[in-house]
Design a protein that fits this description.
Elements (H helix, E strand, L loop, with lengths): L8 H14 L3 E5 L2 H11 L21 E7 L5 E8 L8 H8 L24 E4 L2 E4 L1
Antiparallel strand pairs: 1-2, 2-3, 4-5
């Protein structure tokens, strides 16, 4: 792992680009989530679009979200990733996720949140080292 100073982003991008080119990996970055949905439907149909990135449910634009795909030398999709900014409105991420958890369901086909027993409130907690687990 390499740590890059904040003011060194151009070198980081150039180095990353060189590594990808040396390994015949083509990366595409975009902000049109309808296009991202088409890529998933065509090249990875078993991977559903997650609700946080569904353009029909979210206000996604070039200022708050992007997606990235990687393809091998034969053009096969080998990596997908999406990211977005969330306005936490002065809350901690933990508090935000606690009461907005239903906006981030797993991308499972036919998931019925109305019948889900998940309430967002953990019933049990465990602490292990630096990790807290709740279920």
């Amino acid at each position: 792992m390499t740590l890059q100073p904040r003011n060194d982003s151009a070198q980081f991008i150039a180095t990353s680009r060189d590594i990808l080119w040396e390994n015949d990996i083509d990366v595409t970055i975009g902000t049109n989530f309808d296009e991202y949905q088409e890529i998933l439907d065509r090249d990875q149909p078993a991977q559903a679009m997650g609700a946080p990135f569904n353009p029909e449910l979210q206000n996604l634009n070039p200022g708050n979200a992007f997606w990235l795909t990687g393809r091998d030398i034969d053009g096969r999709l080998m990596h997908t990733q999406a990211a977005r900014l969330i306005d936490l409105r002065q809350e901690t991420l933990a508090d935000y996720m606690q009461h907005k958890f239903r906006e981030f369901p797993p991308a499972i086909p036919d998931l019925d949140l109305d019948r889900s027993a998940v309430s967002g409130q953990p019933r049990r907690k465990a602490h292990h080292g630096s990790r807290d687990l709740s279920w």
